[in-house]
Structures are given as C-alpha cells and as structure tokens.
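ok here's Complex I assembly factor TIMMDC1, mitochondrial:
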Amino acid sequence: RPTFRTGGILCTAFLAPKPNSTDPALVPLEEKPTSNWDRVRKIFTIDEFGAISPELITIYQTTFFTAFAGACYGGFVQSREAYLKFIERNQATQFVDHFEAKKKLQDCVTKNFAKGALRWSWRLAIFGGLYVTFVTVLSAYRGRPSIFDYTIGGMLSGSIYQMNMGLRGVIVGGTLGAMMGLFAGSISLTVLRITGSTMDDVHEWRYELSQKRQRHLEEAVEKSDNRNIDSSLLLHHDALLNSQQK
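and the structure:
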C-alpha cells in the first residue's frame, strides 16, 4: 500500500496540468507605458503635495534668468550711449558747479539704464521662455532629447518673437532661431554625453536645489520668529521682575 500510494502521488503530480505561462489570468499585469501626451501633461500638473514639476521649475528659472540678462545688457548699452551723448552735447554748457553737472549726468544715465533694461528684459524673457518651453515639451513628447527638439524650438520661438514684423520677420526670425537652437542643442547634448548625465538628471538637480533653497529660507524665517518670541518673553520677564521689586 505505501508503494501504491507513493506511485499514485507521483502519477498525479506528473499528470496534473501545469500552469500555462501564456494564461492571461496567471501573467502579472504590467503597467501600461506612459503615452506621449501624458508626459507632456505631467509637466504642467501639480502633485499631491502642491509642488510643481522639475521641468516647469526649469522653464521658470530660465525665463527669469533671461529677463535678468536682458535687463543688464539693455541697461548697460543704453546707459553708455546716454553717457557719451551727454558728454558730447554738454561740452560747451556752463553749469553752476561740478555737482550740478554730475547730478544731471547721473539722472540721464539712470533714466536711460531703466529704459534699456525694460526694453530688453521682456523681449529676452519671451524668447527664452518660449524656447525652453518648446524644447521641454518636444523632449517630453518624444521621450528623449535630441537636436531636433532644440532646432524646432528655436525656429518656433524666433518666428513668434518676430511675428509683429510680418511674414518676412517670421521667416528671418525662424531661421535665426533655428540656427541658435542648433548651436545651443549641440553644446547641451555634447556636455550631457561627456558627463554621462541626462536631461532628467538636470531637471532633478534644479528641483532639489530650489527645494533646498526654500528649506533654508523657511528655517531662517523660523529662527527669526523664535528670536523675536524669545526677546519678547525676556522683556516681559524683566518687566515682571521690576514690578515685583517695586
């Protein structure tokens, strides 16, 4: 009987149907790959913690940096021109004293610096913001960055930037923008290949840097509040001691 029972168990194990690897009920469900538009939509989506995406932070920082660079460039160029014109036009002008001449020169230079900064900051901010937005969206849609994204992004940004100049301005702006995008894309992709990094790593690094800066700012504000509370408590304590002594 033991022999028969053991043989029956072995036969049952041998003849029992084995799990079919092709059976859909037994194959683990794999996550569906994210579609192209889902990756694009994720850029402009706020997560459950209320934080924006690293790509959107990159767009914001680039737009701010180009606005700052344009303000510096336009302000310095126009203030220099105003300085030279003021010296040229007022060589024979008689002022009350040299303080009046310096004051008028400073007013002229400051006013023209503000005009040049305003004129160039919003222009470069629009171009830089559009360029980075187009490149980021195209890279997210295709799943990986390429020189094509930079070229198309520069062409679209240049065309929109020169749209008020008519069809000729759109063509010229698109051509120059495509050339600039090709140049910038070549440098960016070459640096990424040399360093062995990806564009996602760059976005994550910028995101972590902004989060670290925000934490430091919150800690500084918290320390300042604690110091104010401590000082107010000490003043209250001193006032109580003085009242008790009296």
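+1. Residues 1-33 have pLDDT under 50 and may be disordered.
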